[in-house]
Amino acid sequence: MTKLVFTQAAPLGTSSRALLKTTVDTNASSILLRSGRSATRVSRSLRLSTRAASAVSFPEFLPAAVEEITEPVARDLAMRLERVPVTSAIGAVAGNTVKVGVCAAPPKARAGLGGSLPEASDKPQVLCLHGFDSSCLEFRRLFPLLEEAGFEPWAVDLLGWGFTEMPVEVDYSPAAKRQLLYDFWKQYVGEPVVLMGGSIGGALAMDFASEHPDAVSKLVLVDPQAFASLPPPPDAPPPLPAPLGFAGAAVLKSLPLRFLATYMVFNDKSEANWDAIRIGRLHCLQDQWGQALVKYMQCGGPILLQKAVMEKMASIPQETLVLWGEQDDILEKSNLESVTSSIVNTEVVFIDSCGHQPHVEQPRAVVEALKSWIG
């Protein structure tokens, strides 16, 4: 039985969106000044403020462009990022170890990421999976709100995306992404989690929950990609020549395409600003990003994931909450219908005034829905 619940998104108040708007308005005010001398003074003042703000300690593995990000919650989460070693058998990696990009809430972080499996917590553990070619910075606005609400959140970068190490020797198939995530869970979390995935992250979350029910107590899907509007996948992925793959990666990394994608994601188009583009594109500036993306495409990653989701959805045992942005212009609602008709125990919450990423555009509504559902 599917239960439909409608919710009106709560205002952000003085949260990250308000802070971001203040930043944008301040920059705009310098443009409106008529006096050349005044404009020069304001411009110089803003540059000095930016330098002062950037005099913070970001992890060394992040691209230098992280300094250009201005949204406070994004900078805060970036400073909390770590790369932790995970022993895995996903490929011929030196020492069978891959360093996974992760942000975890204390005290879990201090115990688990310190090298020993932490004791079970009495707080709900929420493990967040980002979407296609994204990073855990996607949860920059949700993460602190989850902490405030009494959850212990984890945000993990999936293999081949985000800031997880990208060794040349491994494959980047959906199965490899799932295996490395499970190895991370075994070595650092060690107790069932509420698994949350957005878009393609939702597809990977369904695949993971079906294969590893011991690791997932409940499932949260945020505008999940269930491939309902696509034709059935072919028996074998078509070959992708490497030059064509790298050309596609260059286009995906380009500023025009990133702007278009960012614009389409939001219902409130003012959110599609340069800072959102910088945040969404930051992981693309790593040296191995292109080859990891091409390997994912060459192995038929999208088709393999589509097959996995279509075959496994009906066998997902966990209670499932589906959050859907009412103004999602990326996915058709047939994806929502496919999930609710396949997974036995689902509840749906529609987030009003929201596009494809409720956890970015309406994070407070997402937290309220989680609190109500988990109880």
UniProtKB/TrEMBL annotation:
It comes from the Eukaryota. GO terms for molecular function: catalytic activity. InterPro entries: AB_hydrolase_1 (IPR000073), AB_hydrolase_fold (IPR029058), Epox_hydrolase-like (IPR000639). It holds the Pfam family Abhydrolase_6. Residues 126-369 form the AB hydrolase-1 domain. SUPFAM superfamilies: alpha/beta-Hydrolases. This is AB hydrolase-1 domain-containing protein. It comes from Cymbomonas tetramitiformis.
